[in-house]
Design a protein that fits this description.
Layout lengths: L15 H4 L3 H22 L5 E3 L6 E3 L1 H11 L5 H6 L19 H5 L13 H20 L6 E4 L4 E4 L1 H7 L1 H8 L10 E3 L5 H13 L7 H13 L3 H13 L3 H13 L3 H13 L16 H9 L9 H19 L5 H9 L8 H14 L9 H5 L1 H15 L19 E2 L2 E2 L2 E2 L4 E2 L35 E5 L2 E5 L2 E2 L2 E4 L3 E5 L4 E4 L11 E5 L2 E5 L2 E2 L2 E2 L3 E5 L4 E5 L10 E5 L2 E5 L11 E5 L4 E4 L12 E5 L3 E5 L13 E6 L4 E7 L12 E5 L5 E5 L8 E6 L4 E8 L1 H5 L8
Parallel strand pairs: 3-5
Antiparallel strand pairs: 1-2, 3-4, 6-9, 7-8, 10-11, 11-14, 12-13, 14-15, 16-17, 17-20, 18-19, 20-21, 22-23, 23-24, 24-25, 26-27, 27-28, 28-29, 30-31, 31-32, 32-33
Helix pairs in contact: 2-6, 2-7, 3-6, 7-8, 10-11, 12-13, 13-14, 14-16, 15-17
């Protein structure tokens, strides 16, 4: 048996009323199990102590079973009845006497206390077995027919070999195998078990009833029942423990289940840890007893509870991991340690919280002989990761370029994000409880009054741009509805933390400009300002938090469309001061110059969108052919990046977004199809259209754009 002295003393007590199985059901189940085993023994003559005459040959049986059947038939269970019973040979008549209802077969498989019914019910059968089981237990309590004495550390118990063997593979081997010393002994010494504990186990063997008072006692019973191979008791203990799992004891229970090779219980425990990982920190230092591979598996597939704050969850994960490393930092496999640490989203936890977690766990470690510091308590690897995390949080502006920026929110729920109607160019993971993304809410935000219909009014005209870079969103430029002039303001939004950060302003105020990301740098091109239309371009470097002027466009233009392909920024169309433009150009980073990318578009246009389309081509959709009261451009064109020329694809569906001069959003939906919807401040009254390549047609989608414009919703394409 295992040493259970390490069992936690803080396990919560659980009452019998809440945790014991229904007594009658348990007793009935055990009675059926026991008599099935006794019947198997009787058929092959194992441990039989009675020989009865029969028609063709004598029949072997067990005296306690015959006595229980006889006593049950006269509905008597007092000790005086046992004393008045005749010799066991006279208990049953010969097999050919049909008038006597008592046969060996009926003793082991009774259906009632009278003659067997042609169709006995399950309840009749179980009830009879339970009464017989009570009689056998009374025989034990009155020391009737007992053939073995079991001596514990401080007591002894009398019992029947056949009952012990029926319930326990350990005693079955002891009493049946002739090579074992105890086979012929009438007294057997049991090591490492108290009389009180064994009497409880023995009572279960004879009645099927047992009570579990608390976690510690149940684990001790489980350990002993596994050692003595008492399968019914093992199952009962496991059932109780599985239905009473709590975070405070789950780690120890997982360890003991693996020690006892109880795979089903181990799987249940690991599943619980995976689904309740955020609660694991309450287990404290006991987390350290978990196997490294099991701990990593649970951590990797940890379930993020719906509606839970990301910071709270990640903080609990960090606390659990620190507790584990406090006990296991000296293990030889550094690779699995790295895998465990890689599962901790340190980038999502503020530096102050990281420091508090480290201090709290270090104070909880009882033995700090190596010193009170992260390296001594958790190991050098943890020290390195914590140092990198603190450095990450110090370098605010360059965070998108650091490796920890890859630590996104858990789960696969990528969302389409819009800020004041303008959608980001890529999906991002955002907290479900995010409050600062639907409408702009940076530090320079103006109070947003409500309209008479209760809807929020946007505080930014849709002339700004929203661009994604390594999981972060940058809100750039534009005009302000309640402020004069164009803006140089640039804000960065961290969707993981639902927080805004003001970064360096652009050099030139602008709106209606083109924007793209190349080599982890943001490029803005053209646009317009109070002084007119712009050809100037500039580049933002997060590592230095600075904007630098780069090569100008060949000519001033605004409302052009951009798309980045393999670190090359393509820019098409737009308007100059008088008309729409049909050229497509690209930016050469090495030469710092804008170059012609291919032939002109088939249609001059601005207010359009450019997006990666089927067959590795760039598609342009929508727009108008003149900056002042221009006509809608219905034609959809694709640009072949290899052949560097445009081709006619078809025409877009003529629905409301394309019936007026309006800026468009575009994105690829869940099925990879191009979807287009209008940029709008109100978010109401507009539809989306989707292109389905298989049909080579555009379809109007049922969902309108409100959910995309004012909230964080995934694309639900029909």
């Amino acid at each position: 048996m295992h040493d259970l002295t390490t069992t936690t003393t803080s396990a919560p007590s659980m009452t019998d009323e809440n945790n014991n199985m229904n007594s009658n059901t348990a007793k009935s189940k055990h009675a059926v199990y026991l008599f099935e085993e006794l019947k198997k023994f009787q058929k092959v003559g194992i441990l039989c102590d009675v020989k009865l005459p029969a028609k063709f040959e004598s029949v072997m049986a067990h005296k306690v079973v015959l006595l229980s059947a006889r006593s049950n038939s006269v509905e008597s269970s007092s000790s005086s009845d046992y004393e008045s019973l005749p010799d066991s040979k006279d208990l049953f008549s010969k097999e050919d006497d049909q008038s006597d209802v008592f046969t060996v077969e009926h003793a082991y498989s009774p259906c009632s206390t009278t003659a067997p019914s042609p169709t006995p019910t399950v309840d009749q059968h179980d009830s009879t077995l339970q009464r017989q089981l009570d009689i056998i237990n009374n025989l034990r309590l009155n020391h009737e027919c007992c053939d073995v004495r079991l001596v514990t550390d401080d007591d002894y118990c009398d019992a029947h070999r056949v009952v012990l063997a029926a319930c326990s593979d350990y005693f079955r081997a002891m009493f049946i195998t002739s090579r074992m010393m105890e086979n012929d002994l009438t007294t057997v010494k049991l090591q490492g078990i108290t009389g009180q504990c064994f009497r409880k186990i023995l009572g279960f063997m004879y009645t099927g009833e047992i009570s579990f008072s608390n976690f510690e006692d149940t684990v001790k019973l489980l350990d002993i029942s596994v050692y003595y191979q008492i399968t019914p008791l093992v199952e009962r203990c496991v059932s109780y423990l599985e239905t009473n799992i709590v975070p405070e004891t789950i780690c120890y229970l997982t360890w003991i289940s693996k020690e006892l090779a109880l795979q089903d219980l181990t799987d249940t425990c690991l599943s619980y840890i995976t689904n309740h990982f955020s609660e694991l920190s309450s287990a404290g230092c006991e987390i350290g007893i978990l196997d490294a591979a099991d701990f990593l598996s649970c951590l990797t597939f940890a379930v993020f509870p719906q509606g839970t704050d990301a910071l709270a969850f990640e903080t609990s994960v960090l606390t659990s991991v620190l507790h584990w490393f406090a006990e296991n930092h000296a293990i030889s496999s550094s690779s699995i340690q790295q895998d465990i640490l890689n599962q901790v989203r340190l980038s999502l936890i503020p530096s102050s919280v990281i420091t508090e977690c480290c201090d709290m766990v270090m104070k909880s470690v009882p033995d700090r002989t190596g010193g009170y510091n992260i390296s001594a308590v958790f190991g050098s690897l943890v020290h390195s990761y914590i140092s990198d995390a603190l450095q990450y949080h110090e370098k605010l502006f360059s965070q998108p370029l650091m490796s920890m920026a890859k630590h996104q929110l858990r789960g696969d729920n990528y969302s389409i994000v819009s800020i004041d109607g303008v959608m980001a160019d890529k999906r991002v993971k955002v907290q479900e409880s995010a409050k600062n993304i639907s409408l702009y809410s940076g530090p320079d935000a103006v109070h947003v009054p409500e309209c008479h219909d209760g809807k929020l009014r946007a505080i930014r005209d849709p002339y700004h741009n929203v661009i994604e870079m390594n999981g972060f969103l940058y809100l750039i430029g534009g005009t302000r509805k309640f402020c004069a002039g164009f803006s140089t303001n640039v804000m960065r939004y961290d969707p993981r933390l639902d927080s805004w950060l003001q970064v360096a302003d652009m050099n030139v105020p602008r709106g209606d400009f083109a924007v793209g990301v190349v080599n982890d740098r943001i490029i803005v091109a053209g646009g317009r300002s109070r002084r007119g239309y712009l050809s100037s371009c500039e580049m933002y470097d997060p590592s230095t938090n600075t904007w630098t002027m780069i090569a100008k466009l060949p000519s001033a233009r605004y409302m052009a469309a951009t798309c980045t392909v393999k670190d090359t920024l393509y820019l098409s169309g737009g308007f100059d001061e008088h008309e729409a433009i049909d050229t497509i150009i690209k930016y050469n980073c090495e030469l710092n110059k804008w170059e012609r990318a291919g032939t002109p578009m088939l249609n001059e246009r601005g207010y359009h969108v450019m997006i990666p389309g089927p067959n590795n081509k760039l598609w342009v959709v929508g727009g108008v052919d003149h900056p002042f009261s221009g006509r809608n451009v219905w034609d959809v064109e694709s640009f072949d990046l290899v052949k560097k020329r445009w081709m006619y694809v078809g025409q877009v569906l003529a629905v409301k977004p394309f019936l007026s001069t309006v800026r468009l959003n575009s994105f690829l939906n869940d099925t990879g199809n191009i979807t287009v919807c209008p940029v709008t401040m109100s978010g109401a009254g507009h539809v989306m259209v989707e292109y389905q390549p298989a049909r080579n047609m555009w379809f109007e989608m049922k969902e309108n754009a409100r959910s995309l414009a004012l909230s964080l919703e995934q694309d639900n394409s029909d």
